[in-house]
């Protein structure tokens, strides 16, 4: 009986995760990608389900000879989401905190990997899923 309960719980968590992921992809395609405007979307859906007080980090490659637009798109429940861009030595390149936009246009001098840290403000509530939402980090580019 214990094993059946464990299997049922694991299956429920898996189904919930798949459903959340599908909802996040739908949100990203409908609400976020159009905001890249004249930039060509690189095709990578970098999404996460986060709650208040949570952070996420990812590493992406950027190539010289291109102009980039990074857009961090968050559902309304995650208002105030900020992001930082760091090099691989953890030196700060950009911080969106205090800015009115979650869009950052830039060029890199040489091909390199950059770290993107996304933070949702507030205190987390481990007993409630009410404050969770989708965050997408989208990259668009234009050839120079």
Question: What's the short story on this structure?
Answer:
The chain has 144 residues and is of the alpha+beta class. Helices cover 22% and strands 40% of the residues.
Describe the overall structure.
The longest helix is centred in the first third of the chain and has 31 residues, at 2-32. This protein has 1 helix and 9 strands; from the N terminus they run H-E-E-E-E-E-E-E-E-E. The chain has one helix at 2-32; strands spanning 40-41, 46-50, 55-62, 66-74, 82-86, 92-95, 103-107, 112-119, 133-143. Strands 1, 2, 4, 7 and 9 form a 5-stranded antiparallel sheet that branches. It is an alpha+beta fold and 144 residues long.
Q: What's the structural blueprint in terms of helices and strands?
A:
Layout: H1 2-32, E1 40-41, E2 46-50, E3 55-62, E4 66-74, E5 82-86, E6 92-95, E7 103-107, E8 112-119, E9 133-143
Antiparallel strand pairs: 1-9, 2-9, 3-8, 4-7, 4-9, 5-6, 5-8
